[in-house]
Amino acid sequence: MRRVLAGLLALFLLLLLLAASAPARLLAWVLPPEQVLASGYTGSLWSGSVARLQVATPAGPLHLGRVDWSLSPLSLLRLAPALTLDSRWGEQRLSAHLQLRGRDDLTLSRVSARVDAGLLQQLAPLQLAGTLNLQLARLVLRDGQPQALEQGRLVWESARWNSPRGPIPLGSYVLEAVQAGDQSLRGEVLTLQGPVRAAGELQWKDGSYSIALRLDSEGAWDPLLQESLALLASPEGDAYRLQLSGRLAPPSPAR
């Protein structure tokens, strides 16, 4: 009996050693190729990196550049794989802790991201620029849709509209968002500083979104900006009322 137990223990240690030294490229067999494109694997399955990573999102392909990760072996024993990620691509940054519970349930925590504001063009047909800074304490996704959100904060710094005449400064803005239970994700938009003031709210539920904003200017409106706003918003005295709604399509396959 002792020999059997010793043999099983030796086999377990051997499997553990093999798993610990498994190359990072094994992830290529696990990641869905229609959603994730990765190349340049280095390191091990538990602590490795890829030189280039691209993820399909509803707003189009998101380039993450170099991505480093560490996988907790104990989380596999609990059947809830936990990853810590860190990515860099130019000025873009992303760090997060991810935990997968089942095939379609994903929890993100300690999320910090810095990306180009050009992603906002998915919501409005304007050439927008600036920097988006995202902070999330905890976000629960099911089938790719948010189910719960704690302490969500998105700051749009140095917002600009790239008009045909050149960049027009707008200001800096913040979105504070929360979601509890089966309720919609709700966010409040406030102006931090800048010539164009915005205030309003955002809602998101099951892939559908709605945005209601009131926009006004500290001084006279730029004629080109005013002309573009007239295509999207309704005049309200010297201000504009912007109402946007729609549904983001499922992520397109990565290419």
Put the structure in a nutshell.
The chain is mainly beta and 255 residues long. The protein contains three helices and 14 strands.
Helix-and-strand structural type = mainly beta
Low-confidence stretches: none
**Apparent shape:** elongated
The average pLDDT is 83
What is the domain tally? Answer: 1
The total beta strand count reads 14
Q: What is the helix tally?
A: 3
Radius of gyration: 23 Å
Strand order of the main beta sheet, please?
A: 1-2-3-4-5-6-7-8-9-10-11-12-14-13
Distance between the termini: 56 Å
Estimated helix fraction = 10-25%
Largest sheet features: 14 strands, antiparallel
Q: Sketch the topology as an H/E string, one letter per element.
A: HEEEHEEEEEEEEEHEE
Strand content: over 45%
Structure in words:
The chain has about 260 residues and is mainly beta. It has one domain (about 20-245). About 15% of the residues lie in helices and about 60% in strands. It is built from 3 helices and 14 strands. It has a 14-stranded antiparallel beta sheet with strand order 1-2-3-4-5-6-7-8-9-10-11-12-14-13. The longest helix is centred in the N-terminal third of the chain and has 19 residues, at about 1-20. The N and C termini lie far apart (about 55 Å). The model has no long low-confidence stretch (mean pLDDT about 85).
